[in-house]
Amino acid sequence: MVMTRHALISGASIAGPALAHQLAARGWRTTVVERAPRLRDEGQNIDVRGAGREVLRRMDLEDAAPAAGTGEVGLRFVDDDGAAVAEFPAGRGDSAGGTAEMEILRGELSRLIHERTRDTTEYRFDEQIRELTDHGDGVTARLAGGEEIDADLVVVAEGTRSRTRDLVLPDAEVTELGLQVAYLTIPRTNDDDRWWRWHSAPGSRSTSLRPDNRGTTRAMLAFLSDVRGLGELDRDAQVTVLRRTYADVGWQAPRVLAALDADEGASLYFDAVAQIRLPRWSTGRTVLLGDAAWATGPFGTGTTLALVGAYVLAGELGAGSDTADTSDTADTATALARYEERMRPFVARSQDVKPAALRAMNPRSAAGLAVQRRVLGLAGSLSSVFGGVLEKLSSPRAEAVQLPDYRLTA
Ligand SMILES: Cc1cc2nc3c(=O)[nH]c(=O)nc-3n(C[C@H](O)[C@H](O)[C@H](O)COP(=O)(O)OP(=O)(O)OC[C@H]3O[C@@H](n4cnc5c(N)ncnc54)[C@H](O)[C@@H]3O)c2cc1C
Question: What is the pTM of this model?
Fold first, then answer.
């Protein structure tokens, strides 16, 4: 008789629900615990490219995801008066352009995957793992609420600042890159169009506004700072930092700051962008997935890698795959090792972020900003002539993942 295996997954953003989807499709019982009281809606438009898009296809979400897209028509750099410095229209394929063709709010993608899994997966919000005991043939998790859950596998998909990771694999090297990003949802005005508008100011500060499909506008304040730990401050302290940092910035920065004062307080997600490196991603029957394992930093590859990682982990664990039969402890270990072996090269390429590139994207001086605007203007006009070639050259590396084929045998 085949026993139903049980995976306890911590984190209900992208990686966790995507894994629940893939494991449930292979006959696993799945439980997801999420620290937040409900699915988190914050965040901006994210691009799902290349292999990430192929995973959505294989999850049968390809049609639903574009329907939930934001209709963004491209990326426009603007000057202090809002006039265009350069324009990069949305890409036409899986992976092209500043705005990819499959471009969706992070919260919408999370909701779509949650909707597809809520009948097959038990979701426990407002809950988190406090303690893990690995018995060799299974793991017992004690939750904050006191309950104990037995599982064959525990998957930690809690993002960059994961706490459960520290219980099992405490050697994570967290490298803050100095880029601080605040994501806010603000009221839309009649002047907001379908372009992603990006304004840079001296002092390595930028403000950007993007359309969404909810009748609001997604704002991003991003700046370079040597001060570390801003991500751990509470909301009031982060708002103070943002107000002081942007006090003299023009264009739409005053409007974004004003939204922070609104009665209900604009939803705010503050991220001190960091990379995570670990010598290994699993120990015994606990494994890390997504940003908790390999956060790559600022270039938007996190979601693509989370989807691909979930697909590969489930595929390697799945009974019925061509490559794995994980009916005992040794096979689980083999599957976890194969998952790591397959994902490491893609993660390594995506983590190859040059600090100089971050500085070039966020110039410190007015002279540096003037140079950046000239270069962007040139690139923008070249892109209208040599669009396809430039898009190929600018494609992020994470999309070049070759997906293995795994059979579904639920
Ligand atoms: C609210 C939010 C907004 C974001 N906005 C953007 C954006 O605008 N642009 C962008 O490029 N990336 C954004 N990201 C990051 C992006 O989602 C990830 O880089 C990528 O999708 C990989 O996702 P992940 O599932 O591995 O981790 P994450 O998306 O970071 O999700 C981790 C999940 O685990 C939960 N969690 C954390 N600790 C615990 C715990 N101890 N117990 C249980 N649950 C826990 C978190 O609440 C969260 O739901 C955002 C992430 C979040 C959480």
Answer: 0.90
